Amino acid sequence: MKESQVALITGGGSGIGAAVARRLLDAGHRVAVTGRGEERLRAFAEELGRPEELLTLAGNAADHEDVRAAVEATLKEFGRLDTVVANAGFATHDTVAEGDPSGWAEMVLTNVLGPALLIRACVDALRRTQGRIVLVGSVAGFVPTPGNLYGATKAAVTALAENTRRQVTTWGIGVTLIAPGRVETPFWDEYGSLPPGRLLTAGQIADSVVWAIRQPEGVDVNTVVVRPLGQPN
């Protein structure tokens, strides 16, 4: 009997990360999710009710020791690692010329350093399984908008995906950047309201992640941009 695959998802307790976890569990994967809030992770695990297939790990996606510990705990619990999804991230929803700099350092570290730390921590395990790295970027990383520092962090993630791919493809590791447009998730909570117009669901983005992961052997899907119909930028 073939051993089921294992995925590690940062920021996996809500939004896109939680939707990816659900999709992968339904597809027969074993899944580890990380997040800063132990209570949120506990509630998510209780909601799913699949203790043998789901591991929840509290920690900071921008902290080297926390990330390394999450990878080690996943390997100890499940014995292998086939996919990592660097999903943790947030926006301060202000502008570089008029915003409050007090929140910028945390945003930059979470959105940019976090994925890099995850790549570094998991690459040896993924070489053994010929696995995949998925980075959750944003349309904002492709389309500059006035004063958008968050967009600059996602432009860095876009570059990180290709820079990483060029190194690890020769080791048999795939790299996929998923760049969503506007999605109805807790991302907008600090903004105060949802943006106007049609929004994607977290589940629709999760479908794109799972599609990239389940490509035939030897196929490496690198960049997927997903917008809701009607979003012009």
Based on the model shown, name its key terms.
233 residues; alpha/beta; globular; 17% strand
Describe this structure in words.
The N and C termini lie far apart (47 Å). It contains six helices and nine strands; from the N terminus they run βαβαβαβαβαβββαβ. The strands form two sheets. Strands 3-2-1-4-5-6-9 form a seven-stranded parallel beta sheet, with helices on both faces. Strands 7-8 form a two-stranded parallel sheet. Helices cover 41% and strands 17% of the residues. It has 233 residues and is of the alpha/beta class. The longest helix is centred in the middle third of the chain and has 26 residues, at 104-129. The radius of gyration is 17 Å and the shape is globular. It has helices spanning 15-26, 38-48, 64-78, 104-129, 149-168, 202-213; strands at residues 6-9, 30-35, 54-58, 83-86, 132-136, 174-180, 183-184, 200-201, 223-226. Helix 1 (15-26) packs across helix 6. The protein has one domain (6-226): NAD(P)-binding Rossmann-like Domain (Rossmann fold). Strand 1 (6-9), helix 1 and strand 2 (30-35) form a beta-alpha-beta unit.
